Amino acid sequence: MTLLGHIVVALVAVLLLVGTSPALAATEYIASWKDYEKTLPADEKVTWNVVADAMDILIDAAIEEFNAGDTEAAWEAINATYYGYYEITGFERSAMSYIAGSRKTEVENQFSLCKSIAKNNGSVAEFTDAAEGLRSMIHTDANKLDGVDENEGGGDLASMAAFLGAFGIIVREGIEAMLVLGAIIAYLVKAGQKKSLRHVYLGAILGVVCSFIVAGILYSLGFGEGSEQQEIIEGVTALVAVVMLYWVSNWMLSKSETEAWNAYIKKQIAGAAVTGSIFALAFTAWLAVFREGAEVVLFLYPLVTSTDPMVIWGGILAGFVVLAIIFIVMRVFSVKLPLKPFFMVMSAIMFVMAISFLGSGITELIEGNVITGTYIPWIPTGNEVLTVLGINPWVETVVPQVLLLVVTIVIYIVHFRKEKATADSGAEMIDPTATA
Fold first, then answer.
1. What are phi and psi of 425, to 5 degrees?
2. By CB neighbour count within 10 A (0-12 exposed, 13-18 middle, 19+ buried), where does 216 fall?
3. If both were cysteines, with which of 13, 242, 363, 391 could 386 make a disulfide (CB 3.0 to 4.6 Å apart)?
């Protein structure tokens, strides 16, 4: 019996060791591509498939750790796959530029889904399906980027949307500043103070310079490529931009009536006009340009850091060309813009951009591991339109966007009712051609 007892104990011990072997045999991986690249033969050509194969090792480790019950280790392996390989190698930016912007968003959401399942202690089947789906996406994109797949995609819609977004921001902010400057210039010309115009132009130029200084400071806080800090900065910047966009959109909506706009313009130049101070006029010009320039920097930062920079710079340059043409027309031919349609349309665009930036900003915080996302399976990923609108499959992004949309609808209803009440009361309207 004693011998039999020893045999039983030995068998139980063996079974226990076998049962726990997955945890003891976790796949080893190198958390950084820079370190992994050092292990490659010197003559090996590094392709996107080589990068994808390296990422396979981390995904295998994540699945194995999750199966062994170590969800935290699985989360760390997926996180290293994203920050140590997908972002740092330029895989993300290449997929966005040469396949589609929505594809880049789709893959990022898949990374976040894997981390969400690990954090929320999902089932082994859920994590394995998500991880294998991520692996499939990465290899599909690697084949396209390496030219293996002849059916390469093109992010035409996303690129066009990014171009138009940058273009629209430059034109809208530029025209707003130009209207204020135009009022100041018109006042000086009518007052016979043409010699003072150079001070106004100098103030405007200094406003542009200060805007670039703000841009340099902002970009210097990026903490480099492929870091959680960068995602957090992009997310916070986008959310701050939401506040400014929403404020500006409401401001523009309130100024869509000519009477309100004329009162605003008169208020902008009244102080300087009364005192006749050249410094005050130049400072007003500087403030108008710098304020709009600073907003441009803030609005464009999330686009520049998430879209092909060449597309964004193309939109910016096109916007400046249009502004130059508009300035010549306004200055030389004294053409005045139809204010009400302009402000109404631009206000609506700002509202849409605010909702889009709200979704993308919170998504960046999910990717930066500040928030653990709650996945919504019925919202499709990889859709160009949804990507442009910042709609992602997360409760944490959709709920705030819906709430903001409801508030926006209420604001428009109140505005139109107030406008109708004013019209019904027979209030005197000021001539739309009067600007000063």
1. -80, -10
2. exposed
3. 391
Nearest to 187 by CA among 200, 174, 176, 177: 200
pLDDT of 397-421, one tens digit each?
999 999 999 998 998 888 888 777 7
In the structure encoding, which two tokens stand for residue 7, read together? 């045999």
pLDDT digits (tens, 9 = 90+) for 48-72: 899 999 999 999 999 999 999 899 9
Is residue 110 within 8 A of residue 17, CB to CB? The reply is: no
| Per-residue tokens: 187 | 């006042």
Calculate the CA 262 to chain-centre distance: 34
Whether the model pTM is above 0.70: no
Sequence-separated (6 or more) residues with CB below 8 Å from residue 146: 47, 48, 49
- In SS3 terms, 81-136 reads as HHHHHHCCCCHHHHHHHHCCHHHHHHHHHHHHHHHHHHHCCCCHHHHHHHHHHHHH
How far is Cα 166 from Cα 300, in angstroms, rounded to an integer? Answer: 7
Distances (CA, A) of 119 to 67, 74, 291, 373: 14, 9, 42, 9
Who's near 241: CB < 8 A, 6+ residues apart?
298, 299, 301, 302, 357, 361
Burial 352-385 (b: 16+ CB within 10 A, else e): bbbbbbbbbbbbbbbbbbebebebeeebebbbbe
Distance CA 34, CA 21 (A): 31
Which residue's structure tokens are 């092909």?
308
